[in-house]
Records
---
Amino acid sequence: MSKGVVKERKLIAVPSELVRELNEVANRKGVPFYDYTAEALEQALRASRMKRILREIVDFYAVMEMRKASGHVLIPRDTLNWLIKKLYPKEGNDLKNVWLDAGRWFGKFLAAKLHSHEAVEFFVKMLMASEWELDEVSLEKKENVLRLRLVSFTLPLENTELLMSYVEGVMQSLGYATENRECMRGMINIDFRKQ
């Protein structure tokens, strides 16, 4: 908001609990309530202009912060694909084990930071925001079974198999055993059962 310009003010109906929390945050930050709430609404409009909702942007930020805290790094896709293509023919099984172990470690990291059900949902959001070129990420819950479906129209078979190993490692550390799995170029379907 630009300083010094007086704008017309309007009253809007907002739940009182939300007003109380907003006021507490504004006070902690040492910012006038009006300025703090106006800024929040401006950011919601900015998100809308980006064809996004603010929750989506905040969730994406949380994913990026969690990735940074856990030691994940960004690598150009072409570089990753080149490395995998070069190593996979001779080291495929070893690579799968490395990715499985990396998934187990990250699953333990998530379990330490979040509650079990939150960790699974957060991991699914992370997959949606990943560099894996996933066109579809869906999680279906039926009784004690979680069915995870990942689809990419461009992911090579080798990358798909490594991603599956990583996902299985994460889910194992979150207390899920693989029940059924199907993997083909660019598509993974896995059923997990809570242990």
---
Amino acid sequence: MAPEKVSGLDIELLPEAFVELADTLVAGFDIIEFLHVLTDRSVELLDASAAGLLLADPRGELRVVAASSEQARMVELFQVQNDQGPCLDCFRSGEPVSAADLSTESWRWPHFSATASAAGFAAVQALPMRLREETLGALNLFRADPGPFDRADVRMGQALADVATIGLLNERTLRRSETLNEQLQAALNSRVIIEQAKGKLAERLGLDMDDSFNVLRSYARRRNRGLSELARAFIDGSEQLSDLSAGPLPPSPRRG
């Protein structure tokens, strides 16, 4: 028995699609596979012949990151290379952009319309991947036949794009958090090494821990060395720390 469809929507696949696009916190998350899921599910669920996805890089420039077919990928690439097309307009405005019949849209996108038509696409619906004021990219839906996309399809396509956008932003936040945690753990590990070096140096020179720390810092700065790096070398015996003196603490070196 074929899956039930309402206005082109495959009802049975909807829950699975939303779960796939929301679950970005799994171990081994693959962003490229995730984005291909978005384009593939858009074609499976909606009245679309193909789908393509553009995302902005850290400099704000759009890149083709996924497409359900090679034709769609080439058309999306053409948009980026020629700085012209509905997906670019959608990204820049943060609003949906539609073209029910590309044969009549040469005034808007003369080069894109011809290229998309030659690839077998007659209608396009671009949907923003946006959360509040931040737009990450745009999802393009292509259809071989002319005519406006059904409103239910547009709403569902936007819902898929929205869920994917939230998933991407959550994953980005997680990566930032993991990076912060890694930096914090590295700092804690370095602190342990420094404390060990202070103790070893205090015992060697007969200093208290504060003076020992000042000697260690002074030595590191005079030689433009990282404090934790020097402490680790002192602990493992690869550096003997000759010419030690408490002396005045040199200024912190500039690091480019």
---
Amino acid sequence: MTASPEIAPSVHESNGRKPMEPEEFQQVGAAIEAAVAETIVGQREAIRGVLICLAAGGHALLEGVPGLGKTTMARAFAGALDLSQRRVQFTPDLMPADITGTTVLTQGEGEVRGQLHFEPGPLFANLVVADEINRAAPRTQSALLEAMQEGRVTIANTTHLLPEPFFVLATQNPIELYGTYPLPEAELDRFLLKLRFEFPPIEELNAMVLRTTGDREPVTEKVADASTLLRMNALVRTVPIAAHVVDYASRIVLALHPDGAEASERVREYVRLGPSPRGVQTLCMAGRVSALMAGRLVVAVEDIRAVAAASLRHRLLLSFDAERQAISADEVIAETLQQIPREAR
């Protein structure tokens, strides 16, 4: 195991931590990506997307058919980060208390025997891998919702704060597969990005087989810790974003609403519900990380465009006609990006 990259100290202090410099951010981000790439073959866009979520302090949803490496990628990020980690296999019979924790009677002796105390569940970790999240019933999904949005859980009228940082890396199979439940729109909206796993080309498929069927299992090197991630989160929020770039992000979201003034005929016909205001917030936060990873200190329109599909695809509710004609959210978003002018009006 190696330590986090050595960085020149800063003269400023923030919440007891040395604030991260942009050069350090790019270095640490590249180190995390490289460590994960030692385990995962291909899927570069998904790797960058998860890194964006971690750096921005958000949650990631990984979607793809079984066998493409979604859970392996989640474990690889867990291995690259020196954090407390828990993995939960979501099943239809999983109950809310199974993930949040429950109040139990002590088994000690004397005065403490028979007293109630709280036993934390697997959500009380820095990094929670929620495997096949769309196989859990709605009650359990509701319990996860508060944790993702508020960073806390409420049990028996008592609120328990979750550790910082707190990230959920969730995997799901396409909802048309047997034994899955569509995630509620409110829960989907809490994921910063939704990342798709595509079937690999033959070169990557060959490399995957050679890497995973040998006598040695790939081991992900630890390159960052909780303090490093919190400093990354703090730096992201300080990156300046010009008013015309925010306006561009807002116009994209408004154009994806069927009743919006700039909505295309395709949007009016195939979109039932457009993104919430979190869509604009996500575009700007993810765009900040994209700029930092490119070595820039100002968010550009191109950064917004680069993260648009992953930021918005799970925030679009398509019509039945769109589903019947196999029209995807990515197609609608791509068409909207072509129509929205990049320059401010």
